[in-house]
Write a structure and sequence with these properties.
Blueprint lengths: L2 H14 L3 H16 L4 H8 L3 H9 L6 H10 L5 H4 L2 E3 L4 E3 L22 H12 L3 H18 L1
Antiparallel strand pairs: 1-2
Helix pairs in contact: 2-4, 3-4
Length: 152
Amino acid sequence: MTKRKVRRKFENTKQRAAQPLDMHVGKRIRMRRALLNVSQEQLAERLGITFQQIQKYERGTNRVSASRLFDIGEALDVPVAYFYAEFYDPANKVYIKGLADNDQDPFLRDKGDKLLYNPETADLLKAYYSVRDESKRKELFKIFESMIKSVG
């Protein structure tokens, strides 16, 4: 194999590796899907693709095309910008803000995405928003806040 062929082969492999932004978009797809209690199979069916393709998108091993991301956004009832929100790449010092209109501190940026994308976080959010009465939900939030203040 010539140097030129080796270089091309290496460059192609490098391009196919999961990129931080692809992984972030995949995590946002998985998080939104989990919050809506939509299985990979159900989302795949809505999109007319296989659930294995959804798995690849969520892991970031396959890039999501612009049109497919638009379709996923429609299926999960979020704008395309949702999938890019809160992206932070420390290697390149790139940060994409959230969907808020004003400047805000990045959510959990210093702790990474571990807490944000933890299944327990999604379960907590689902439980919280399952309380349909807004005043009771606010009371529940106050209880959480008081518990946090008393613990730490």
